[in-house]
Amino acid sequence: MKKLLVLMLALVCACLAACTDRDDGAADAGVSDSPSAYETALRLMDEGQYERAISAFSALVAQYPECAKKIDLCLEAINEREYAAAVGLEDAGEYGRALSAYMALNGGYGYRDSAERALNCREQIYLAANELLAQGRYEDAYEAYSLIKGYKDTNAVLAGDENLLSYTEELWSVGNTVYFGRCEQDMDIANGKERIEWLVLDRYSDGSRLLVSRYALFALPFNDLRADCEWKDCSLRTWLNESFLPSAFDATESAQILAGTVYNDRLFLLSADEAEKYFDGDRARRCEPTKYALNQGAYVYGGSCWWWLRSYCASDSCAMLVSDEGRIYELGYYVDRESDCVRPALRVDPYIKQDQ
């Protein structure tokens, strides 16, 4: 029996020694599991999954300097793929979608002759809009002109044509939905940013409108750090006004966005009182997130998400929200929770001025 115990102990020691030698060898080589991770990145690149390949190569750059070149090759391949898709849209006469795709190329910095092609798309949309206006198709003309604000005399036409002005007033009626600005929503970068759809909540005495996004556009925390935090001090307020605003609205649209009543913010969140006032019950307050928000980790139940409000919350380190059931949750939840969503609100003058 004693001999058997000694033999078993010897076997255990031999196994431990072998494992230690193997680990030491891997450590000396400095590779661990990296070769397989590198091979996975190469495979993703070969399969055309360039975004995933970039993420994989990025994690290996420190160990494999050549990964930086692989990332550049992936970025070039993405640009070429998206450029080809944009050209296909242009050739098919889908000038609005093609224009958006060209503008999104290379992070907005352009690629190959995308600037010239984008100009051609604007011209084709402009010619079509003029024809629609001449035919008395004011709704279609308005939609076309809205795609090319700032091009040639488009702003002057929108600001001066009585029929278009009448349609603008009708379109921006309380209860309607309007398109204004663009941001990524469908997780398909190749087709460019999508037009943002807004609910018209109110018409003020000066003719401006209060809007809130129809869908929850993002999943972001109210504040980056868990702490007692009001709207005026939160990171979400800064992000909306300093990052999102300039990226989502062109120069003409930006001039149409007026300072709100909340600290003169141009972008803000609804208050609990406004969420109560402007929505007809819990069902109306329920909100669906975009695919982009879902990709960010938005929590969804029954197709609806939770979305932040700006009203002060008495609970420690919390902010108010609307729940997935559409209830106003006054107790709030921790401000740094990343799975809750954002429905921006803003005050807009729907009438474009000729000098904008």
Structural overview:
The protein is an alpha+beta fold and 356 residues long. It has three domains: 15-83, no CATH class; 94-171, no CATH class; 176-356, no CATH class. Helix content is 47%, strand content 15%. The chain has helices spanning 2-29, 34-46, 50-58, 67-91, 95-104, 114-134, 138-147, 154-160, 162-171, 235-248, 251-256, 272-278, 282-285, 291-295, and strands spanning 177-183, 194-203, 209-213, 218-219, 257-258, 267-268, 300-301, 304-305, 307-308, 318-322, 328-334, 341-342, 345-348. The strands form four sheets. Strands 1, 2, 3, 5, 6 and 13 form a six-stranded antiparallel beta sheet that branches. A three-stranded antiparallel beta sheet has the order 9-10-11. Strands 4-12 form a two-stranded antiparallel ribbon. Helix 3 runs antiparallel to helix 4 (67-91) and helix 7 packs across helix 9.
Alpha plus pi helix count: 14
Shape: flat
Please state the average pLDDT score: 88
Rg of Cα set: 27 Å
Helix content: 40-55%
Characterize this entry briefly.
The chain is of the alpha+beta class and 356 residues long.
List the defining traits of the structure above.
356 residues; disordered N terminus; three-stranded antiparallel sheet; 15% strand; 13 strands; 14 helices; alpha+beta; 47% helix
Topology:
Blueprint: H1 2-29, H2 34-46, H3 50-58, H4 67-91, H5 95-104, H6 114-134, H7 138-147, H8 154-160, H9 162-171, E1 177-183, E2 194-203, E3 209-213, E4 218-219, H10 235-248, H11 251-256, E5 257-258, E6 267-268, H12 272-278, H13 282-285, H14 291-295, E7 300-301, E8 304-305, E9 307-308, E10 318-322, E11 328-334, E12 341-342, E13 345-348
Antiparallel strand pairs: 1-2, 2-3, 3-13, 4-12, 5-13, 6-13, 7-8, 9-10, 10-11
Helix pairs in contact: 2-3, 3-4, 4-5, 5-6, 6-7, 7-9
